[in-house]
Each structure stands twice: as C-alpha cells, then as structure tokens.
Specification:
Elements lengths: L2 H27 L8 E5 L5 H9 L4 E4 L2 H14 L4 E4 L8 H7 L2 E5 L2 H14 L4 E5 L13 H14 L4 E5 L9 H13 L4 E3 L6 H6 L4 E4 L1 H4 L9
Parallel strand pairs: 1-2, 1-8, 2-3, 3-4, 4-5, 5-6, 6-7
Helix pairs in contact: 4-5
Bound molecules: pyridoxal-5'-phosphate (PLP).
Length: 234
Amino acid sequence: MSGQALDLQAGLAERLGLVKDRIAAAARAAARDVADVTLVAVSKTHDATAISTAIAAGQRVFGENRVQEAQGKYPALKAAYPDLVLHLIGPLQTNKVKEAVALFDVIETVDRPKLAEALAREMERTGRRPRCFIQVNTGEEAQKAGVLPAATDAFVAECRDRWRLPVVGLMCIPPFDQEPSPHFALLREIARRHGLAELSMGMSADYEIAIRLGATHVRVGTAIFGERPRPPSA
Ligand SMILES: *Cc1c(COP(=O)(O)O)cnc(C)c1O
C-alpha cells in the first residue's frame, strides 16, 4: 500500500471513530440508547477506495445521492460485503426507479404521488421492497425536494394505504441558513402523528442536535470522508 493510501486509511478511520464517539455522547446526553441511532456514511463523490477504507473500519451503512454514481461503485462492494446497507438520499426520477429498487436497501426521498406509484409497481414486479422514508420540505423552499408539511398527512396515507409502500419514517434537509432545531422538531411531530418510528435528520454540521431531537438516522459525509471536490463552476 502506498504512503498516501495509508494516510487516507488512518485519517478516515480516525474521523469515523470521532463521529461515532460524538454520536454516542449525544445519545447519552439525550438519555437515548446509542443503538437506536444509525450512522449513514454519505460517500457521494468519494471513490470505492475511500468506501472500502470505511468498510475496513467497520462501517456498514452508506448513503449516496445519485443513482448512477452509486451504480458505478456499489454493486461490487455489495457483492463482497452482503451486510452493506445502502440508502438513497438524493432526488429520485421516475425513470431511475428500476435501478434504484434493484440497488438500494432504503429510499429516503419518496416525495410525490407519481414516484410512489412507480416504486410500488417496481416493488410488485420484482418482489424487492426497499424501506421508504418520505422526504418533507420542512423549510418550504421552492427549489428543494420533499412534500410540504401541510401535504404530508395525506401523502403518508396515500403511500401506505393506496400504494402499500414499506414506509418506515420521515427525512428532512433543513434550509442551510437556518437554525435546524425547529425543522427537526417539526419532522418528529409529523412522524409521531403517523406512528412512524424512523427519523433521518442531521448532517455533519448538526447531527448532535438532530440526535437530541430524536434522529434515528444521521447522514454524515464531510466529517467522515473530508471535503468533497467542488464541481467546476459553469
Ligand atoms: C451530502 C448530503 C449529506 C451529507 O452532508 P455533509 O454535510 O457532508 O455531512 C446528508 N444528506 C444529504 C441529503 C446529502 O445530500
């Protein structure tokens, strides 16, 4: 192994350990069982070498935001590590539903009737049933994916009753420029109304706050893998 690869390995394992320690401390401070908080390591833009390093350090749950990128990295890793759990955390187009259902174990971004229907039909066709989270646009941002809070009750009911999707929880991405707590609290309240046990909320900057407010899944990228390369500006 090259010196550079060894550095990557040591640095990544150390950062992963630090994040896990902080998750455990946040859970303890909230009088919660650390086993009820799943760390989803967000590996988007990072290559299979970095992901393998995280796997070697014991990480098994990963998140990707693009179906195509995940298809390039994960089939081989999933074959080698059958206990890997892969979450889709980015917007899903209906023309990618087939690939998404085949590859992902959890789809966190169900947010509109057409997508719910397409997922239901593909699950019916294949018998594969990735667990689903409904993404809620808690900040009501025009450019952001997710169902609006006021429409969430009806959409949850439609996903469950009409499409029989395996809905396990809710997910949100608060506006970047706002204090996240009210968004996390709102998500928790909507989930409680529906008896949904899982809450995917919190990223590198705010996962400890999210754990305090009930997150069962935190999606952490930068704090584990380091800064992502910026896309070249157009
Ligand atoms: C990229 C991404 C994350 C991880 O963000 P970091 O700030 O790097 O931890 C979490 N959730 C979603 C939906 C993302 O796209």
